Fold:
Amino acid sequence: MTGRRRTPAQALGLQGAVWLTAGSASLGGRGRIGLLRCIAQHGSITQAAKAMGMGYKAAWDAVDKMNTLAGEPLVARTTGGRGGGSTTLTARGEQLVARFGDLDAAHQRFVQLLSADAVDLRTDYSVLRTLNMKTSARNQLLGTVSAVRAGAVNDEVELTLPGGARIVAIVTRESTQHLGLRTGMTAFALIPAPAILLGTDLGAARLSARNQLAGSVRQVTPGAVNAEVTLELAGGEVLVITVTQPSVKALELVPGLPATALFKASSVILGVSA
Structure:
């Protein structure tokens, strides 16, 4: 008797998406909010539709529905003039895009937290243990310790994120022992937003920063002096980076632009759930 050939077990993971609703109706998720971002960037529904890979009618129908459900216009159109008119976001539209970006980033961190423990069937799972972790650091990334390299005084710890990106941290030998850091265990990295540099068009540049995480700009939120840039990594993780306004202009930072987050291993704080 011959047995049926077993297929290799696939790694388990979690996925999730945030949607805004107005009553029982769907206002939109990443797709529609992304359309609003493109309208703000291009000043045209036609150009925004092309950037999103959708037809003009579908884009306009989506905008019209969002305008209706939001209770007040999110997009405003002007006609005439030498430029032939333009399309812009209203103040309400800008607020909605910014708030959705914050909510989506928080949701992605939540999914990462759940995924790191919930899909490991060999260990007990406690959502309370995960959710009770509160810190002031804007960037909180959960991953698995993939390497611990001992040094004379300090140790080098490598953390692999769910999407495959790797973060290197330098911690004291005492901290390694106190936290019980070992390969295969779940840990989280805290990275202050001001400690991260942002680079574009690096090409073959050789840099001393141990951590170089590639992604694309999701959102740029301007402030009086500095701007807050949200960078989405290839695996879906999100980093918040503080950049000066002159740097935003010099780097021409806009949503969709490829960029790389740079930070030293000494800037990373590691922690574990109690």
Observations:
- Residues 107-190+266-271 form a domain with the OB fold (Dihydrolipoamide Acetyltransferase, E2P) fold (CATH 2.40.50.100).
- Residues 154 and 174 are 8 Å apart (CA to CA).
